[in-house]
């Protein structure tokens, strides 16, 4: 086998992306030069245990997380985040800016993602003990809010369009919404909702508040199965003409022989493209 192929299967040449969510943990490994070779695994969490306890068990019981990778990314799926225009951000004011928009909570650390393409800073928090475990286990890891790579990806998509757009990533018990006008982020928020009725209500209310055009502007949806999305779309199309299902960001990549891209969370796929 050629040396390049051998390297692509070795952890020290691969990128590891870990996603932590209250609903479960998952990770993906891939080689940046050949991301068609993607391995993805999802693990349920014990909801009776703390995030830190679940993370400690996840790290100790998952062999793939106990080798050294070329790069390690850790994505935190959380509702505790806020966005700040890059021109208004200063490091020493990070916590002040965060807690102006998010209720204060004990035993957490505030982190930031500076999004150069979007000219936005995402401030988010993570449980302090969880951060200690992860930082000790992965000393060179980069931490991201799951919204951060999505904002970068949708910024790029938005700049290719002449309309205003809402992009919504729908999860079982929440919905991430990103609104753009002229390639600039207008709104990023996550709503703790779980029914088609509530999702439609929130999307239509945001559409009205931002005064988007029901004939020309666009709504893009992802996160659910295509069958579930079609059910959501059939109702929304009574009010919004242009509604689309978002294709995988990895459309230019060949699908791995052992991993369906549709099983990989959209935020991890966005990070593949944007990092």
Structural overview:
The protein has eight helices and 13 strands. The protein has a domain of 97 residues: Protein of unknown function DUF3822, C-terminal domain (Nucleotidyltransferase, domain 5), CATH 3.30.420.260. Helix 2 packs parallel to helix 4. With 275 residues, it is α/β, with parallel strands linked by helices. The relative contact order is 0.13. A five-stranded mixed beta sheet has the order 3-2-1-4-8, covered by helices on one side. Strands 11-10-9-12-13 form a five-stranded mixed beta sheet, with helices on both faces.
Q: What would the average pLDDT be, to the nearest integer?
A: 90
End-to-end separation: 29 Å
The CATH architecture of one domain is: 2-Layer Sandwich
Q: Percent of residues in helical segments?
A: 25-40%
SS summary, helix count: 8
What global shape is seen?
globular
What's the total count of β strands? Answer: 13
Strand content is 25-35%
Specify the CATH class of one domain. Alpha Beta
Unreliable spans are: 1-6
Q: H/E order of the elements? A: HEEEHEEHEEHEHEEEHEHEH
What does the largest sheet look like?
5 strands, mixed
Rg from C-alpha positions? 19 Å
